[in-house]
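In this supplementary section we document a worked example of the pipeline. Step one takes a protein sequence of length 315 as its only input; no multiple sequence alignment statistics are reported here. Step two produces a three-dimensional model, which step three serialises into structure tokens for compact storage. The input and output of this example are shown verbatim.
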Amino acid sequence: MTTSFDGRSTTEDVLAGIDLSGTSVLVTGVSSGLGLETARAAATHGATVVGIARDLDKARRALEPLDDLDIEVVACELASLASVRAAADALVSRGEVFDVVIANAGVMNCPFGQTADGFETHFGTNHLGHFVLVNRIAPLIRDGGRVISLTSLAHHAADIDLDDPGFETESYSPFLAYGRSKTATVLFAVELDRRLRSKGVRGIAVQPGGIRTPLLRHTTPEVMQEMLQQVHSHRRTNGSHDGPPAVKTVEQGAATTVWAAFVAGAEEVGGRYCEDCHVAEVTESGSDGARPYAVDPERARALWAKSEELVGERF
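The serialised model returned by step three reads:
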């Protein structure tokens, strides 16, 4: 039985007294925000950390204060499958085994754009980039390991659209695109868990909460207004009167990640959606919890098949 934590808990609260020596962790997006804090927390408690970053110089500057910790940085642009494959191949070739892989990096509320491979920016970066990276390094994940896939409350905004993932027939909305990509990250965890649990590897979706990080750099006042309107509209439709989600510190935001990665029982969190350092309910309404479509096993299988088709690889 694990100690009880909540949305106010920090990474240090969760990892108090825990020695991660001998544990190897890969974290994407270590240049700032939650990824940087996750890497710091794990390494401070003894873990060996490999960080993935698009901009090596930026990541190294961010990590300078942590020079005494065992954190290495590897270049990888998640918006380019060529870059993802090259990084994955390099990791596989050196053969380092990972106990935990944390798919943390992402983009939010970007103007319409496409990745190097022609995918809508959010879907291509947040989902497909990690889909290829994690699957290509899956042989490196130790039996009994874990893969943490970061999602968002924004998944409440929309289910995935497998018929039009690139907004080719529908008007583009930055927040809608972000929400769909974050639904995809939950479904990825669900299907990955089903596929790998026979070797004890568990897929887990983590919703960190609202944190002011560089992820918000594309969130214009107009997009913020759209977000608030969608939230209020959804709550009226579902009869919810919950207040706005509390804004967390980065240390609080990363707490659920390290809780799911290192503290919670595997059977407790495997294939589940977690927030505020606990497994969340699946619910049609309210400001918390997972929407049913985001944890639907059939939707998860369908997304996996579509993702394989799009990237031209079978896993």
